[in-house]
Amino acid sequence: MAGRSTGTVRTIDAHVHVSLPRPAVPLGGANRHRPWSVAVTAEEMIAAMRAVDVTAAVVAGDTLTSSDNDYAFRVAAAHPDAFRYIAALDPEAGDLEDLVVALRAHPAVIGIRIGLLSERQVSMWRAGRYTPLLNAVRRYSLPLCLYPPTLLDEIGPAVRRFADVQFVIDHLGLPQPTSVGDRDEDTFRQLSGLLALASYENVAVKLTGAPTLSDLLFPFDDLWPHLHQVVDAFGPDRVMWGSDWTRMVGRCSYEEAVDYLRDTDELSRSDKSKIMSRTVEQIFNWRPSPTAS
User: Between 2.60.40.1180, 3.20.20.140, 1.10.375.10, 3.40.50.720, what CATH number should domain 12-282 receive?
Assistant: First the structure.
């Protein structure tokens, strides 16, 4: 493995979660709203980022529960040098158009996020009930992050129809384990569904949470045959690294979540520069200050 390259590879975390402070829950304790994760405040997240030279991060709205979305939005607004926000939206919100307009105008918001996880969400997608949201993000030029672990093979028609919308597939589009050792052995067999989307220029992908899919400890060397397929298919201009912190707690440290990719010899320095920061900046039209961290 190469030595840490923090002085040469600028790093932006494309996907983190922050949670409301809960004094009754110790640092690293269970998060009652996201039991597969832990409660980490904005201040704790910033400290973790500074410790490993991560310049800034994108806070991802929670697509399963809106419990922490207000806090995450406030965090991004209060720490503009450290965070931006991808807002989770209910596609059936009665004031959907007004919500998208307001979010588009807010300097903290750089995109919209949806999850196709629950039976209800999957059935809504298949019934076309996300179309108003897709129309809105197209109209107001907002990137759309989506996580469709059971629907990768059904995303293509929407991507073709909304060819001028920037789609970003979270977590490689693959099912993610909720705890250490809870990984489906067939997970990477579904990678073909993601690779098929590479032919669409309006689709990018996040490598978020990848270490949870490894059977090995840091530096998770068994991931590379699969990650190379993704980078080769999409190109580094459409691939971005993200930690998915804090779901990764218990699997590895934040430093390891960064360094397995930033310090690897599996990628060229040029490709790492894109995947670790430049792709995020280009896709979301956001360039944080070099001194933000």
Answer: 3.20.20.140
Domain-by-domain residue ranges, the chain?
Answer: 12-282
The model's pTM is 0.90
For residue 35, how far is the Cα from the chain centroid?
A: 19
How far is the C-alpha of 188 from the C-alpha of 17, rounded, in Å? 25
Beta bridge partners of 57: 13, 83
- Please give the chain's pLDDT, 293 residues, in tens: 333 444 579 999 999 998 876 544 444 444 444 444 577 889 999 999 999 999 999 999 887 654 457 888 889 999 999 999 999 988 888 889 999 999 999 999 999 999 998 899 999 999 999 999 999 999 999 999 999 999 999 999 999 999 999 999 999 999 987 644 455 667 898 999 999 999 999 999 999 999 999 999 999 999 999 999 999 999 999 999 999 998 888 889 999 999 999 999 999 999 999 999 999 999 999 999 765 54
Look at the alpha carbons of 262, 264, 269, 275 in this order and tell me if their dihedral is positive or negative: negative
**Six-digit token string for 37:** 């994760």
Contact 44, 7 (CB under 8 A): no
CA-closest candidate to residue 143, choices 166, 160, 164: 166
Amino acid at residue number 34: R
Residues contacting 150, CB < 8 A, separation 6+: 116, 117, 122, 175
